[in-house]
Amino acid sequence: MLYMDHIDALNTHDMSGFRPVFVAGREIGWMRHGVAERLALIPGGVFEVGPFGVAIGGAAASPDARTAAVAAALSPLIDEGLIPPRRGELYPVVERWGEPVLFALDRAHVAALGVRAFGVHINGFVRRPDGLHMWIARRADDRTVAPGRLDNMVAGGQAVGLGLMENVLKECAEEAGLTPDVAGGARPAGLVSYCVETALGLKPDTLFVFDLELPESIVPDNQDGEIQAFMLWPIERVLETLREPDAFKFNVPHVILDFAVRHGVLTPDDTPEYARIATGLRRVPVCFHPSPERA
Amino acid sequence: MLYMDHIDALNTHDMSGFRPVFVAGREIGWMRHGVAERLALIPGGVFEVGPFGVAIGGAAASPDARTAAVAAALSPLIDEGLIPPRRGELYPVVERWGEPVLFALDRAHVAALGVRAFGVHINGFVRRPDGLHMWIARRADDRTVAPGRLDNMVAGGQAVGLGLMENVLKECAEEAGLTPDVAGGARPAGLVSYCVETALGLKPDTLFVFDLELPESIVPDNQDGEIQAFMLWPIERVLETLREPDAFKFNVPHVILDFAVRHGVLTPDDTPEYARIATGLRRVPVCFHPSPERA
């Protein structure tokens, strides 16, 4: 497959199946019509459901009040199997990164409400005499998400109340056994973003990417059971493996392509797709009220 | 001013003043209504002018034939002062980077037809013990474009028939006196793009960015009169100077912000605008038939 196929695959959605979700006048997500119609029957009025949109709030006007009210209103839908069980990890709901947290939502329900989610992905790499090498992880076979698939060395979702770099240190310890003095060398290097429809709903995700250059002497060592093996591959092999449709977890090709662009592994003279890749790696989510500023 | 103000400024346009331009069924640009109406009066039918669009071609069906026919048709408009005099440098006209060259157009008329233009910008930088430093150029006072303003170490538009890396070597020699063995260390690192309306027309530009790490012993030395001085500034000073509205040539802040994002000088934890900057630096041009793939 082409590199662009990964980007196109993660920007596929039929918005006619969704209606927009608002909080305090801000557009924060998209909900399937079936979920909206079910929420319309929940007493209490936390979800004000109209035919063309859903407003969250009602009497719950503070972030904490919204968090509690939304969680309570969603409970019957969990029981009915309409949305997944809670995972016990709260994600921040924002209109855009850097803006106030409007409420917190269980990670399992982020896609059902189609709100933006954020995460950190860490490219662990080694500059060897024979070229640039990248640490690639193979996910454990018992994972719910992408069992057995390839992954970045370290990656994790962004829970509420944690800084990005704090999350990098935490995930590097859990997933790769890296001490803070090693993981602290991770350097922010931008982001990738996409907006994809899945069985669970809409996922408008932003992954903040970090580069962590490691000496050959440091070998990642998984602590939390998420990873079954780490491989140090030449970057050319990593890129070749992107040609296989399902080798990697769905959003990892974005992070690898971004790394290859930033490090000059892909060049604009030799890659006809180059400009489409570079631009396609940072898509603005679908908006009910589109504006170039809604990035 | 805010970093985002630079990005917003370069994505400002009122498309009601333009109509789309097509070649061989491909959308390639935007033309002001006044220019279109004047071209409608040119005999020969190279520009087929309708109220809602302009098709270029007519009998001229090959790239070379289009190049000649378009140049001839534009001549009266130059004489009348409706478009600028030729500069004698031909730019490729493409629907997207990496696709076939549909014809070549004098650099001076690229904005009048609103076609995409491409260029290379080279970040010259030095890793000193006291931190990252960047070479900043001050443009000569006799330049037509941005006289006296600050610029990247080396930058240049992309003429037809030249590779990007070939252009990097050529511009590094002319603008900074760098030998090919030094300039050859430049590494592609992505691109920035914007779409801005100017007095000349619409500019949907893509700048391919290259990083060139230099030892302290190498000092750029301008050969072609475009630059009056080079300064090696700490990256923090470069970013501070971005706060001044008109210190830099109009599109240079994009390249510097991209550099600062890629090198972790700006961090997502400390920069509320971070996600908007990262996404805003790569805008897809305005399209008559919008599609996410038109990057």
From TrEMBL, chains A, B:
One example GO MF annotation: 8-oxo-dGDP phosphatase activity
Pfam assignment, any one: DUF4743
Domain Nudix hydrolase: 117-258
Species name: Roseospira marina
Superkingdom of origin: Bacteria
Lineage of the species this protein comes from: Bacteria, Pseudomonadati, Pseudomonadota, Alphaproteobacteria, Rhodospirillales
Protein's name according to its UniProt entry: DUF4743 domain-containing protein
InterPro entries: DUF4743, NUDIX_hydrolase-like_dom_sf, NUDIX_hydrolase_dom
